[in-house]
Amino acid sequence: MTIHPRSLALHGMALAGLLLLAACGKHENEAATTPPAASTTPAPAVAHTAPAPAASTPAPAAAGTAAMPASAGTSASATPTPANVFKVDQVQLGEAVTAGYKIAKPTTSFDASQNTIYASVATTGTTPGATLSAHFSYLEGKGEDVTTISQTIATDGPATTTFKLRNPNNWPAGKYKVEIAIDGKPAASQTFEVKAA
Question: Does the keyword Signal apply (predicted)?
Fold first, then answer.
């Protein structure tokens, strides 16, 4: 029986994928949030990344995992071509997410008693490691920062990263904004409203 180098490499990659999958979720990225006028400190915010389903190629071994960057594939070039530039494709907000970390029912209006708000960021392109961040701010009055959550991701195609913002108390009514940045550079934003209870 002859073992080909290509088969050996594929088996090694599969084993590495299983090891990454086993370590998944042990170091979730969390950030404390402090919304304006909250009487107690809210629970931490969390970011999760999952690769989008592949269009015509099979998904890597670590596909669909929480708090795990989408896996980087092999490519002929270390720098992305213009067609593969890593960018934000869409930002959606909602009260719940699916197993693939996409918003179940997109909305831009929340009740003050809605303790958890999700921002789902769909990205396209290739990156060996980029920092995707979501900066939440309260736009009423002087305008106040609520929190910034960051997640480092590596992907070779479409991926979805979800940021979870939690507050055990009612949110102050008014307009809010989430600004998405890639490596500190603005990439997209979405405004939303919290209605009085």
Answer: yes
